[in-house]
Structure formats: C-alpha cells, structure tokens
Amino acid sequence: AQTVTQSQPEMSVQEAETVTLSCTYDTSENNYYLFWYKQPPSRQMILVIRQEAYKQQNATENRFSVNFQKAAKSFSLKISDSQLGDTAMYFCAFMTRTQGGSEKLVFGKGTKLTVNP
Amino acid sequence: GAGVSQSPSNKVTEKGKDVELRCDPISGHTALYWYRQSLGQGLEFLIYFQGNSAPDKSGLPSDRFSAERTGGSVSTLTIQRTQQEDSAVYLCASSKGARRTDTQYFGPGTRLTVL
Question: What is the pLDDT of residues B6-21, one digit of tens each?
C-alpha cells in the first residue's frame, strides 16, 4: 500500500526565518508525482509545489522549495523567509492508482505550522 | 475564473438522518473527486468521476455513501442514516483531466457534524 508519513505534527518558526517540513513515503512505483498542499483556517487546500519523480532537479516556487531524495523516499518542504500568511496545515501527498484504476491523492496526516511575529 | 465551490459550508444533523453535500467544479474540468478529512487525520479518497465514465467508488467506506454527477458538472455526495463517525470535513476537488500531471483544485469543504 502507498503511504505518506509526516513525522512532525506541529512546528513553529519566527517570521523571516527558514523552516523545513519532512515527509517520507512508501511506494513500489517508479514514476509518480509528489505534492505539498497548504490548508489555512479557511479550509481551502492550496497546491504549494509538486515534484515529478523522474526529474532529478528539485522543484522550486518562489520561497518554497523541496528536497527530493528518491532513493530514500523523502520529500521535504523548505519555506524561506517565512511570512505570517504561511501559518497553516501542510499536507504532503502522493498520486497513486486506486483499486478502481483511476488516480487519487494519498495524504499524510499533516504538519501544523505556526509563523510567529 | 471561479474556483471549486461547495455547499453548505457547515451542516449539523441528527444521527440517522440523510444529508446531501454539493460540489460545483471548475468549468471545463472533466475529473471530480470527493475526499473526507476526519479530525486528526489526513484526507482519504472517497469517489472519483471522469467525464461520462462509470465512477470509481473504491474509496466509499460503506453502502450508506453514494454520489452522482449530473451532466458532467455538479456532483452530490449523499450519506444515508448518518452516524457520529461520519462527522468530518468533506472536500471536493476537480482537475482538467485524469492524468497524473493534472493538478487537483480543492473547494473549501463542507463541515458535517452528526449529533
């Protein structure tokens, strides 16, 4: 079974500093996609960044970047220059195939990030 | 353009009652997903619609759960004879297609509370 593990239930960081959220996953697939989603108190899940497993280069989106270690099945998210608006739940997710043959996202349990002023 | 919308935002019901949750996907998106987010848990896949194909119901937890998608657009998730363990946030997502490269865009969810 495909699983996603986020080992840090809660984290905090000072505004303007850098924080790294960890994620590990388990899969027997070779070509797959990984995602980080942000869920603020409004509940709206927002895609932060995604990584294609066959690409060795780590994905970056402005202040957000990932450290993708395929052999170790690790996919951490680094947030640079943290802002108060980054306060949210962060979910690591993995795209996999359902029993019915379609695609679905499998999520970790999330990390609650608080950015302190 | 408008994003994914869901209604109601919050729903409180009594154990044993039926509820209907609605999802309006992004216009033009052919794929639609329902997920459930229980307290302290991540999201779990429930059901998936792609165009006019038969839905993938492999994630539905029991036969009390059903969903339909009319005209390839709006979807309704129905929970019959609700139980307290059904209390959760129900999230809908849509994507342009069903490929792994197609990003899923989520709605704000419906928070269901079963008393």
Answer: 999 999 999 999 999 9
